[in-house]
Amino acid sequence: MSEPIRLIVGLGNPGPEYETTRHNAGFWLADHLADDLRATFAPEKGFFGLVAKARFEGENVLLLKPATYMNRSGQSVGALARFYKLTPEQVLVLHDELDLLPGQVKMKQGGGHAGHNGLKDIQAALGSPNFWRLRIGIGHPRSLNLAQQVADFVLHAPRREEQAEIDRVIDRCRVATPALLRGDFAAATRQLREA
């Protein structure tokens, strides 16, 4: 068993104009997890975002949706992690992943940021790449036979069939979350594959 996750960060861009865009897949999952844990997001100025405080098996769990834009996510994550004295290993970041097709999900600890500006900023703020990432596949314009540029693609809503696949992945992630909150990453990985 590893250190249990104590901070879950959903990445996205704030504002109604971004709500349904692919780049906000992390926000979508964070909203569902807050519901599952019976917690409510509320603005916290000092943490530059929306924070939900939950309890899981007697332990405190924090959920965060940074209110900064994606490329400044680290400002929010760093402030919260420092205040609650959390290590990078106790942080799980939920984010959209171009290199995975809709319907695919992968979890990993550490590694690079693959050009994802949110991850890059969080890595800088935490001073370590050792946080966990739950990568929600949104596909790449090339793999989906679209002529769009990547920047344009991530700021548009998924097509209906892609959204259905992403929703299924979100449900699998919800099933695996209790194992993550217990620090049982092997069980969580199995549940992500099986569900």
Automatic annotation (TrEMBL):
Q: Which Gene3D superfamilies match?
A: Peptidyl-tRNA hydrolase
Which Gene Ontology BP terms does the record give? Answer: protein quality control for misfolded or incompletely synthesized proteins; rescue of stalled ribosome
The molecular function GO annotations come to:
peptidyl-tRNA hydrolase activity; tRNA binding
Marked site positions, Stabilizes the basic form of H active site to accept a proton: 96
Keyword vocabulary terms for this entry: Cytoplasm, Hydrolase, RNA-binding, tRNA-binding
Fetch the SUPFAM superfamilies from UniProt.
Peptidyl-tRNA hydrolase-like
What is its subcellular localisation? Cytoplasm
- Name the residues annotated as catalytic in the UniProt entry: 23 (proton acceptor)
Q: What is its EC number?
A: 3.1.1.29
* Gene Ontology annotations for the cellular component aspect, listed alphabetically: cytoplasm
Under InterPro entries, the record lists:
Pept_tRNA_hydro, Pept_tRNA_hydro_CS, Pept_tRNA_hydro_sf
Q: Which PROSITE patterns match?
A: PEPT_TRNA_HYDROL_1, PEPT_TRNA_HYDROL_2
Q: Where is this site: Discriminates between blocked and unblocked aminoacyl-tRNA?
A: 13
Broad EC category: hydrolase
Annotated residues that bind tRNA are located at 18, 69, 71, 117
* Substrates-to-products reaction catalysed: an N-acyl-L-alpha-aminoacyl-tRNA + H2O = an N-acyl-L-amino acid + a tRNA + H(+)
Q: Pfam families given for it? A: Pept_tRNA_hydro (PF01195)
Briefly state the protein's biological role.
Hydrolyzes ribosome-free peptidyl-tRNAs (with 1 or more amino acids incorporated), which drop off the ribosome during protein synthesis, or as a result of ribosome stalling.
Complex and partners = Monomer.
Q: Which family does it belong to?
A: Belongs to the PTH family.
Its recorded name reads: Peptidyl-tRNA hydrolase
Q: Which gene encodes it?
A: pth
